Amino acid sequence: MGTEHKETILEVKNLKTHFFSGKKVIKAVDGVDFDVKRGETLGIVGESGSGKSITSLSIMRLIAEPPGKIVDGEINFKGKNLLSETEEGMRQMRGNKISMIFQEPMTSLNPVYSVGEQIAEAFRIHQKLPKKEAWQKAVEMLRLVGIPSPEKRAKQEPHELSGGQRQRIGIARALAVEPKLIICDEAVSALDVSVQAQVLNLLKKLQKEYGLTYLFISHDLGVVRHISDRIIVMYLGKVVEIAEKKSLFDNPRHPYTQALLSAIPEPNRKKKKERIILKGDVPSPIDPPSGCRFHTRCPLATDLCRQSDPELKSLGEGHQAACHYAEAIS
Ligand code: ADP
Ligand code: MG
């Protein structure tokens, strides 16, 4: 996929975002590193509670403080550390450099304004277009994201549209500001499977046409697989594996990734691998397990795993895994 020659748009280094509740510290994100290249889709996958949303909210500097705090790390966006950006500077970033698409667009759309107006607003504010032109551009955007009879739909309020159409509105609004990076957090998770595929294909098509860059977060490996070039696997606030999509699916090197993969049906799996079934739930991030955080659920865990936390190590061609036995596992 050749992403190694491309410009890095976003670089997250040793990000730690914790929540403080009385004497307890919830280590929601605890030392996360990754980068996103221009024009690619980087997927982030992991069970619920692994720290995916807190990672994206940290990038947007939308962590409520207190109880949350980014306690360490850097978030370099086009070479600038967002963690030293002013609140006003961040507002500008969020307004026109980094857009977010959420799971339920009802929460980010204003219920009492027409969807056309809400998209037109972006054109008025960011491109300083006069009212009428902004409205026309909004209607064009609705057409672009596949809303039928956009002139008519533009005048409707969010609740008059279906979930799939509302998500298309969310995408239209995110695109209207011509962002450099679009963060999709569970963007299709609330949609029916057939509508999911349509919205994912729309995102792909728009990416091709406009050279968009996505950070695409989902608990659903099937969804992440459909859209991503590279994939990061998170577990309990840490990155456990990162690889090109093909490499991750053909040759997962972390037992957690193997377990996630063996849980999805694969009719034409070539090598019949032994299924790893995950025991129990994700442990609490308040007192995460010692050593490798996955050891309590890992069928391969040894004393070394219980004692020492493995670093991400390189396994060649951009494939990295944080497992003491990554070289031996294939
Ligand atoms: P997910 O991977 O499902 O998106 P999150 O990033 O939302 O996971 O959450 C990661 C961890 O942070 C979870 O254990 C969650 O309970 C905790 N967390 C998230 N928000 C808060 C908060 N406001 N206060 C305390 N803990 C939080
Ligand atoms: Mg989440």
Question: Can you walk me through this structure?
Answer:
- There is one protein chain.
- The protein is an alpha/beta fold.
- It has a single domain (8-97, 179-321), classed as 3-Layer(aba) Sandwich (Rossmann fold).
- It is 32% helix and 23% strand.
- It contains eleven helices and twelve strands.
- Helix 4 (131-144) crosses helix 6 (163-176) and helix 6 (163-176) runs parallel beside helix 7.
- Magnesium ion binds at residues 52-53, 186.
- For this structure, the quaternary state is single chain
Mean pLDDT: 92
Name of the CATH first level: Alpha Beta
Query: What hetero molecules are in the model?
Result: adenosine-5'-diphosphate, magnesium ion
CATH names the topology as Rossmann fold
Kindly estimate the percentage of residues that lie in beta strands according to DSSP: 15-25%
